[in-house]
């Protein structure tokens, strides 16, 4: 027999061409014994679907991809390690892909799903209101972790694992208000951010409104729209600009602990002290905030528990072949030494 075609495989197995195609593409609506016969015949006759040996290797790929939005965000480091260990323990392959701030994580995920024949995808970070047309391109189960994304009601085959960023941000700003602060700076994401930066900014605004404190736009500091957001360098540079501008404030709420640490360094370099002159709080509960001097008051996310739940939900979706699952974890306010009552 010369070059084997899909019609040859169908004839040898006594099935139709469409049945062979479903077996190759791992469709669930095919008898397991028939599928095994087809796959054995494909290997025996060295048939290569779409004339690509690479595709043949991916016919039954047990691969999970994890995409992180925000290159270098240390929040994800512990969670990635936990997810990877859990995935590998289940005899699946694990692929890690970093997505730049200016890239769309859903487009990257859809492309990876096609290229690597993924069984599922985990997104860490990303838009809080992802576009329906982009979600529709993802043909495998997926879980969005660390963002309480709003998914259209007609969508299926996904999970959400997060904290309530708006509510937790509200609690942090309300805490600062209870300590006597009313001139509170927020250092947040770029102006048109649709992810946790927007949610945490919404919580900031709501807390001030509840306390009857006018929201002063001069106290809202946005990151530049190009490049990574959650870095100490950004926290340092934005705080230094603020100090040099002469804007009056008594506290800084940074939407991540890394930004908060950069802010503290700028305050010290400017000749001021934390918290004697300016109080600083962060968000996420990273170890670096605990061991910084002074230790930084922050919102602590249960990162390991969230990572394990993310993996659990994804494999549940894979096994059940669909569904909608959501778990919103409670965070806690972890007091450090970076806030002074006034």
CATH superfamily of the largest domain: Response regulator
Structure annotation, total helices: 13
Sheet of most strands: 6 strands, parallel
First and last CA, distance = 87 Å
CATH architecture of the largest domain: 3-Layer(aba) Sandwich
Number of strands: 12
Number of domains: 3
Q: Mind telling me the C-alpha Rg?
A: 25 Å
**Percentage of residues in strands:** 15-25%
> Within the CATH hierarchy, at the fold level, what is the topology of the largest domain?
Rossmann fold
Shape: elongated
Q: List unreliable stretches of 5+ residues.
A: 51-60
Q: Briefly, what CATH class of the largest domain?
A: Alpha Beta
Describe the structure.
With about 350 residues, the chain is α/β, with parallel strands linked by helices. Helices cover about 40% and strands about 15% of the residues. The strands form three sheets. It has a six-stranded parallel sheet, sandwiched between helices. Strands 7-6-8-9 form a four-stranded parallel sheet, with helices on both faces. A two-stranded antiparallel ribbon has the order 10-12. Helix 8 packs parallel to helix 9.
Provide a short characterization of the protein structure:
Helix 1 packs across helix 3, helix 2 (17-24) packs across helix 3 (32-44) and helix 5 crosses helix 13. This protein is an alpha/beta fold and 342 residues long.
Write the SSE topology.
Elements: H1 6-13, H2 17-24, H3 32-44, H4 53-57, E1 63-69, H5 75-89, E2 93-99, H6 105-116, E3 120-124, H7 132-135, E4 142-145, E5 158-163, H8 165-178, E6 184-188, H9 196-210, E7 220-222, H10 232-245, E8 251-254, H11 257-269, E9 279-281, H12 287-291, E10 298-300, H13 303-320, E11 324-329, E12 332-334
Helix pairs in contact: 1-2, 1-3, 2-3, 5-13, 8-9, 10-11
């Amino acid at each position: 027999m010369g070059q084997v075609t899909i019609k040859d495989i169908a004839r040898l197995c006594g099935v139709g061409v469409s049945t062979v195609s479903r077996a190759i593409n791992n469709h669930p609506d095919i008898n397991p014994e028939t599928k095994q016969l087809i796959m054995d015949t494909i290997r025996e006759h060295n048939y290569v679907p779409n004339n690509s040996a690479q595709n043949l290797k991916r016919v039954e790929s047990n691969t999970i991809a994890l995409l992180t939005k925000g290159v270098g965000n240390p929040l994800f480091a512990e969670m990635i390690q936990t997810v990877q260990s859990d995935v590998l323990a289940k005899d699946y392959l694990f692929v890690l892909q970093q997505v730049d701030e200016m890239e769309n994580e859903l487009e990257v995920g859809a492309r990876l799903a096609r290229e690597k024949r993924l069984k599922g995808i985990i997104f860490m970070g990303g838009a809080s209101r992802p576009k329906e047309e982009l979600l529709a391109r993802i043909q495998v189960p997926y879980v969005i972790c660390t963002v309480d994304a709003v998914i259209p009601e007609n969508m299926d085959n996904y999970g959400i694992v997060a904290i309530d960023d708006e509510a937790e941000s509200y609690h942090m700003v309300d805490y600062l208000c209870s300590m006597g602060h009313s001139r509170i700076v927020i250092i947040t994401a770029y102006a048109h951010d649709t992810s946790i930066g927007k949610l945490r900014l919404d919580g900031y605004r709501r807390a001030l409104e509840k306390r009857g404190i006018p929201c002063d736009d001069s106290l809202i500091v946005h990151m530049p729209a190009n490049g990574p957001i959650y870095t100490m360098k950004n926290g340092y540079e934005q705080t230094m600009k603020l100090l040099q501008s002469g804007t009056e404030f008594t506290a800084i709420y940074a939407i991540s602990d890394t930004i908060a640490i950069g802010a503290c360094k700028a305050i010290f370099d400017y000749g001021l002290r934390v918290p004697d002159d300016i109080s600083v709080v962060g968000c996420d509960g990273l170890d670096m905030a605990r061991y910084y001097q002074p230790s930084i008051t922050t919102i602590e996310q249960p990162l390991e528990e969230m990572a394990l739940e993310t993996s659990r939900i994804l494999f549940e979706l894979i096994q059940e072949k669909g569904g909608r699952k959501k778990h919103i974890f409670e965070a806690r306010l972890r007091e450090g030494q970076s806030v002074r009552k006034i």
